[in-house]
Amino acid sequence: MEPGNAPLPQNVIPLFPRVTADDLNNVAERSARMLQRIRDSMLQPHPRKEPPVFPSNKVQALCGIDKTKMSNLLKAGKLPQGTQDGKGKMRRFTLAETIEWVAATLKPKKRAKGQKGKIITVGNFKGGVTKTTTGMNLAQGLALRRCRRVLLIDLDPQGSSTTLYGINPNAEVDHAQTVLPLIEGTEKDLRYAPMKTYWENLDLIPASADLFNAEFILPAQVHQGDVGFEFWQVLRKGIEPLLDEYDYIIIDTAPTLSYLTINALFAADSMIIPVVPDVLSYSSMVQFWSLFADLVNGMKRFRSKGPTKSFDSIEILISRMPNKQTAQVVRDWIRKTYGDYVCPVEIPETELARTSSTEFKTIYDMPNYDGAEAYRRIREPYDNLVDLVDDRTCRMWEHEEQQAVA
Ligand SMILES: Nc1ncnc2c1ncn2[C@@H]1O[C@H](COP(=O)(O)OP(=O)(O)OP(=O)(O)O)[C@@H](O)[C@H]1O
Ligand SMILES: [Mg+2]
C-alpha cells in the first residue's frame, strides 16, 4: 500500500458536526450573497458589450446608395447626421442611426397591423453544428439589414447565446429572468422576460444552468394528471402575446432531445437546421429526422382536437463548409437526401468565424474588420441568409394578408 493511502487510525478521523437543514440554508444564503457580489462587480461598467460604429461608406453599402446620394440626404437634414471629428473627415454613425438610414432608404416592407411575428427555431440534436452562431447572426442581421424587432430566446442551459451578448449565464442570470417561471407556471406568458441588449431592436431572454430544471418540472406536471396540459405547447402559448411586438422570435436550442427542445420545435413557425458536412453529422441528421418525424406524428395521438403541427418552412443550412473534397461528397449526399429542404445559402468554414467567437464576437459585431476579403467571405453568406429568411417571411405576410381579405 502507498504510504499516503494507509487508513487513518479511528481516533484520528475527524468527526464533523452534523449538517442540519438550517446549515444548508446558511450556505445557500451565503452563496447567493457571494454570487450577487460577483455579478455586481462583473456588471461594471455597464453595458460591457458595445455595438459597432459604422463609418459612412459602410452605411452607404448597407443602404445601397453612393456618396453623392448620401450627401444629398444629409443636406436634406431628415436623417441622422452622425458625428465627424473635423471637416472633411469621415462621418461615423451609431447602430441606431445606421438602422434609421436603412429604414429610410431601403424601406423594408412593414408587418401590417394585426399580423403576427414569426418564430424560427434553430435546432439539431448534434452538438457544435453552429446553431448558436446561426441564431445570433440571423437575429443581428434581421435587426440591422431589415430593421426588424427581434427577440432571441436562449433555451440552451449552456447559455452560449447569452454569453455572446456579453452576459455570464452562470454568474449574472437569475432563474427568474429565464423561461423557467413560465415552465413552472408561476407566469402565464413570457411578457415578463425580454431584456434589452447592446444591439438595437434585439432583445434577449437569457439562459442559465437552471434551465435543466425544466426537464423535471414538465414531466412532473404531466404525471399530476392535468387533462388539458400539453407539455409540448407551454413555450408556444407563452410566446403568443409577444408576437404582436416582435417581427421575429428566434429560439436557440440545446443539442439534445429534451423537453425544452421539444417545446422549441412545437413553437416554431419555421425551422433552421444547421449541419456541418462531415460523415458523423450526416448520420446524426438521419437520426434527427427520424426522431423529429416520430415526435410530430406521435403528438397527433395526444391531441384530441386542433390541427396537427406543420411548418411554414424547414431549411437545412450547410454550415462551416470546409474547402475539402470529402466535405463536398457529404454535401452531395445531403442535397440528394433532403432536396428542396436544403437552403440555397451555404456558410463556409473560415478562420475569422472560428476565432471571433473566442472573443464573444459575431460577424455582425465587427463590420470594420481589417481583412476585407476574409470578412467578405463570411459576411456575404450571412447577409444572403438574412435576406432569404426575411424575403420569405414578407411573402408569408403578404399571403396571410390576402387570405384575411378573401
Ligand atoms: N463558419 C464557421 N467557420 C469556422 N468555425 C465556425 C463557423 N461558425 C461557427 N464556428 C465555430 O464552431 C463552433 C460551434 O459553433 P456553435 O457554438 O454556434 O455551435 P452549436 O451548434 O450552437 O453548439 P452546441 O451544440 O454546443 O450548442 C464555435 O466554436 C464557433 O466559433
Ligand atoms: Mg449552441
Question: Secondary-structure map with pairings?
Answer:
Elements lengths: L20 H22 L11 E2 H8 L3 H10 L15 E2 L1 H12 L11 E5 L8 H15 L4 E5 L5 H5 L15 H5 L10 E2 L5 E4 L8 H10 L10 H6 L8 E5 L6 H9 L2 E6 L3 H24 L10 E6 L6 H14 L12 H6 L15 H34 L1
Parallel strand pairs: 3-7, 3-8, 4-6, 4-7, 8-9
Antiparallel strand pairs: 1-2, 5-6
Helix pairs in contact: 5-14
This protein binds adenosine-5'-triphosphate and magnesium ion (MG).
Keywords:
2 domains, alpha/beta, Rossmann fold, binds magnesium ion, 406 residues, binds adenosine-5'-triphosphate, seven-stranded mixed sheet, 14 helices
Q: Any overview of this molecule?
A:
With 406 residues, the chain is of the alpha/beta class. A 7-stranded mixed beta sheet has the order 5-6-4-7-3-8-9, with helices on both faces. A two-stranded antiparallel ribbon has the order 1-2. The N and C termini lie far apart (86 Å). A hairpin with a 5-residue loop joins strand 5 (195-196) and strand 6. The longest helix is centred in the C-terminal third of the chain and has 34 residues, at 372-405. 34% of the residues are buried. The protein has 14 helices and 9 strands. The protein has helices at 21-42, 56-63, 67-76, 95-106, 131-145, 160-164, 180-184, 214-223, 234-239, 259-267, 279-302, 325-338, 351-356, 372-405, and strands spanning 54-55, 92-93, 118-122, 150-154, 195-196, 202-205, 248-252, 270-275, 313-318. The protein is globular.
